Amino acid sequence: MNESTQQESGLVLVTGGAGSVGRQLIDRLRGAARPVRVFDLPMMDFSGLEDDPGIDIVKGDITRPDDVASAAVGIAAAAHLAALLPPNSERDRSLTFAVNVEGTRNLIDALEEHSPGAAFVFTSSISTYGNTSAEQPPVTVDHPQQAIDLYAESKIAGEKLVVESALRAVSLRIAPIAVPAFLEPPQVWPFTPDQRVEMVHRDDVVDALFAAVTLPEAAQGVLNIAGGPSWQLTGRDYVKDFYDFVGAPADGAVYRDSPGWVDWYDTEESQNILGYQNRPYGHYAQQMRDIVQAMMEE
Questions:
Q1: What pLDDT shows up at residue 251?
Q2: Is 276 noted as a catalytic residue in this protein?
Q3: pLDDT of residue 3
Q4: Which CATH superfamily is domain 3-178+201-228+264-278 in?
Q5: What are the residue ranges in the chain where pLDDT is below 50?
Q6: Whose CB among 23, 92, 100, 224 lies 3.0–4.6 Å from 154's, allowing a Cys bridge?
Q7: CA angle 74–78–84, rounded 5-degree value
Q8: Do the Cβ atoms of 125 and 171 come closer than 8 Å?
Q9: Domain ranges, ordered by start, for the chain
């Protein structure tokens, strides 16, 4: 079986698979009859995953090479979702780099040794571009990377490891993920009112990951993953809509004093390859209204 055929049908490793996005990706893969190996910390909740004979669970720590090696045998493709995310990533530099950088190194080393033909999907972030608010949009994948927080710095270092590896790999630079659920607003919104902001629906991210681990042509280079033109708004637009969804005024919203790392992105190539932009902003807005309405009727 050649590498392309194996990627389309073989075992997929999902690190961080017990998390929200990981579980949705696993559901998509199992729906396509793909065998899955889940790798995550032992204290995570694996309920709902352990009863499926098509799911192999390996409990371990991404910072421990021996744990990672045991998960990397016989893999056709790997989606590397395990990471320390903001705000936790900003509290301890050594821990963030141990998980996000050395953990990535451990996985690459293990795959190169045990599954050298595997396709590797690295989840990076558009935060790696830094503050681009003074430039002309959209931000392209060849834009210089300039971290303004520890998370972005760790993802830049992780991408470098991916480029230097011998694996067939793609780095997905993912925009802020919009989750269709009732959530508390942040104390400080991570952008200014007039800043360009483009998010991406959580389910579109799952579609992008599914395509990236199953399509041989996807395993190369770097791709921006964002919502597309309908999601290209301003910070004020997003915040006003958020408060409109819950029927509250946006007067008390607090924004950053200086621009954060959000912007509008060039996603033409990623959409052409992965076909993931399936939920425009209006779809998300209606989902949010429906969620709030259902809560009010309870």
A1: 87
A2: no
A3: 63
A4: NAD(P)-binding Rossmann-like Domain (3.40.50.720)
A5: none
A6: 100
A7: 130
A8: no
A9: 3-178+201-228+264-278
